[in-house]
Amino acid sequence: MASSSFICISSALDDLQSLLNIFHYPEFLLSVKNWLTFLRTFILCATKWGKDYVHLASDDKEGVDNHHASLEALIVRIEDAISKRAQELHSIYLSSSENPSYNQVFKIVDCIEGSDMVSLRPEIYRWYFFFSDCSSKLSSNLIVGKDDIMEFMDSLLESLEDFHDWGFADGLIKALEEKLEFLKNFIRFVTLHDVEDTQLGPLLTHVKAVAIKAARLSYQCKFVKKSELQDETEKSILELLLKIIPVDPQVHETCVQALIASKLSRKSLGDTDGQILRDFVDSLLCNLGDILKSGPAILSPSLNAIKDGVLLSQDMELLSSDLLKKIQLIETTVAQRCPDPSLFDYPKTNGLGFIDFLLENLMELTSTEAGSITFMNHPIQAVQEELVCLRSLLGRIVELHSEDEDLQAIRDRLIKVAYRIEFLIDSLMVGDDLDSSSMSFHSIVEEIKVIKAKALQICDNDRLHGKVKKVSKRLYHMPTQFNKPIINDVVVGLEYESASIINRLTRGSLQLQIVSIVGMPGLGKTTLARKVYNSSSVTSYFHKRAWCTVSQVYHKRNLLLEILTCIESKLPDNVFEMSVEDLAHQVKKRLLRNKYLIVLDDVWDIEAWNGLEASFPDNGNGSRVIFTSRRQDVAPQDKLDQEPHSLRQLTPDESWDLLKAKLYPGQDLAPPELCEIRQQVVEMCQGLPLTVVILAGILSRMDPYGWKEAVEGLSSRNVSSTEQCTATLELSYKHLPDTLKACFLYFGGFPEDHEHDTKRLISLWVAEGFVQKTQLKRSEDVANDYLMELISRSLVIVSKPRSLDGVKACRIHDLLYEFCVTKAKEEKLLQLVRRYDDLSAFTVPCYLRRLCIDSKFEHFDNLRLFSPAIRSLLLFSHDDDGRSSFDLRFIFHIIKLVKVLDLGQIYLRGTFPRELDRLVHLRYLAILGSDGQFPASISNLTNLETLIWRNSMHCSVSLPDTIWNLKKLRHLELIDEVDKYYCFFFPSDNLDNSSQLCDLDFLSCLSLDPGENISNLLRKFPNIRKLRCSVNLEPDVQYHVAMDSLTQLESLSLSRVLYGYQQFHIDFQFPLTIKKLTLFYFGMPWRKMAAIGNLPNLEVLKLLEEAFEGEIWEMEAEKFPKVRFLKLASLNIVKWTASSEYEYEDQDYFPRLQKLVLESCDALQEIPSCLGNSSTLEIIEVSKCPNCTSSLEEIEDEQRSNGYTDLKILIS
Predict the structure, then answer these.
(1) How high is the mean pLDDT of the chain?
(2) Which of 13, 264, 271, 958 has the most beta carbons within 10 angstroms of its beta carbon?
(3) Where's the NB-ARC domain (predicted)?
């Protein structure tokens, strides 16, 4: 009878699962399923052990018979009810599979939770109490069947897993589930090698008792919800949680002996045993804290029983602190030695680029002696040959741009094989031999051959080939080279809006007030605020201006630093060491008695204002604060000047004007192909500027003949403007070339509103293998082309332009960011864990390739990172109190295959972790340095291309002799927030016998001592293009610094180490290739400008912070032939004039100058009037130069008289 009940419930559960799939898991169906699983669990308990418990409870035969009859009667009632309901449920399933309707869902609920079924619950509860009480009295010597226990545990755990709406016992039940899972996995683990049930008697008895009590308590939580039972139930669950990890010595001894027996067994493991190992180690890690609490005396014999070279520990005092790390290493070993092919996931983007990257690395490895030895016993040559063929096939498929399912399946198989090859090769390089039946080179070679035959058959199909080529030509036309993007935003339709905001800023009350700009995402709130912020009427009206981006997640310290940086050009030396309170005081101090404007961009709640308000004094002079926000209610009502300014959507004509301006800047007339889609475009974009801009980016990279089809595909969607923007983003992403998709999605691996330094972003792209190498360009230049292309498609925003034709920093819009986060995870490219995610609950997928974590500092101690396949790990933390350090060394033992590691915001415990030396695949390493030197073992990282040392101790850093062994180094940088001219000291001994760093492209900052042989040192960087140096000088010594050996150098920044402010005697011999030159603190006389003026390729010249000393600079004619950008800042110059010899002759002074910037030159009175004759001069920016106004007016008048009306002079 009981067997029949069990079969009926199992059948009903199968039908119910099918219905759940049909109706997409509605909550009430899950509740029905949960009731059935609990019913099944009770049936198992009653039929397996009910008779034993009845005999245990009564001494007389009559009592036994009565109890037994009562239990049998309940089982019969369950049988009758279930038999009828299972038939009804099956009928509902059959009808739903043909014609699903939600009316049938309610029939299911009525069927399973009818009155006759519900009436069973109180009696089941009483019997559970009886079973629970009896199980605690059973002798541990009684034989308990392991299979019976496991069947019961499986059913119970399924009940707990599907349990919803826990109510008051939510967290407790979850903990109960984890601990029961551990017991189950432990039993499965120790019986891998045929440990008999009789050897596990006390353990099985213990497990049965706690499992039955857990079943009773969880049943009580779900079906006996009486308020008076709440405290009692919580107490009972807590008591049970403490007993699940056994403390009884007899049970402990059983565990130890079982471990020893399993260890001594020599039985070979089967195919399913790898999963058993993984399950056990994972549940062991979840419960290790409670195991440790039971005491090292209990743990010691158990752990020493597993003598696999990892868990041995003689020092019991260190056991608790080291055990977790050692267990984690076991899990990694299990994952590596028993890889699960079903979990072997891989990115879906940039497959062709990845194979190119893999082939290049493989060819390099096999050409080295170390590589030849490593691969001696493996068919690596055959793999390499097949991989070349694989690349050719994939290239053909990518060129077809087909969505044909057969082609896509072949493509996916090819890429998956390539990733498996990489995994095998990289594992071999770190000493892990994974050559097993499921992951072997031989099996991969055979698989490639099968795929190749299928691919050739499909690709040679003439009908498919011709069809795909036609589609490709129409929709996927790409320009042969990247166009130069327009850096400045095109602003349409904001004239009235900006005038209204400016009026509110410059008029009205003299009290401090907030002007709030609100609107949906993508509407242009930030664009409007930026337009107002930079308008000449605002810059001249306010004495101080500051802009900071708040975002959803913000830190008061960072906001204050951002504001302080804007309002003060010369910050205190210790500003980055200040507390939050001191920073707030500094901001307030500098705003006192000044009329100021502060922009708080992207505000999400009023707490941001509450934290900053005290720093904004009300001077009674008309100071203002601008909010931009998606919400109307973030600004305090008492501070608002009037109602928030709700930004309207663009009119159809404005949308059209914006599209034209983006596609055809400077042209009034649009071509016919664009006019044909005008109506569809303006209707589709629904007045959302971001959608217009993204659509323009799509169309700009398509053949105009495909425009109509692309727009029609989108305009048919009847969705909101935000959803429309997302749909447009999908199309924009789809039309990106494969080379750009991964680069674009990579933005989703950083914190929201993160501002990207382009040099470091490009280095990351290169290290990740996203950048295709060519013989004509360096990888950095190709990556820069990628960035420019993303900007030109309006997917990336320029936040800081370079002086000329370049991008210093960039970011992406919030909507694009969310798209990248979601799409990157969907495409398996990377996964971002955000600071509002629970890091302790996050389990890293076994074969996750890239993991980016943005979390509070203290949460990193909860990081469970046990994925050996991780290739990139980026950790971000911006906490105000982020000075605490923690130990990540155990992670480095696990992620042995990592290639990109960014720890630049994480304080590591101790010095440079020696465990990093083992990460031989590293290409990119950023670290927060805690002392002033690298270890010599850094040379073990022979693949390192980018090395960034972020200075936490504010000192220069000594490099070891072994630095010359890092022959692949391309980017070496020291970052210091306090003084950017702390530098690297390179070893100068034995330079003649040291290797050159031929690939080094960027170095910042190099210490130069002119007293030593500088030329020998500089010759170690023969191909460097960007260099920052700090020069050690002594007064009253004549120096000659020859740098002309750097024949590839394009950008040079030179500063003197600060020891007083004397004038120094120095001559530089610069390479003629220099395009950008920046000088600081040398105090040279102006006559030394002659050597700089002769540089034939110089385009950008910056003379900053006492670079030159003297009141008069008299320019010579015919100098600076190509300079387009000139900046003079913090100099004591009074008169800047043209040479009197040529003052009245038609001579060229800066003949190509486009932009002149003058900053903090307090004494400057005269600027060369001959600049008024320049036909190329476009803009003069003047800040804190109060005495040169008349000279500027003279230049402006001269420009007008010469017919040059485009010159802009901005004074602040």
Answers:
(1) 79
(2) 13
(3) 497-665
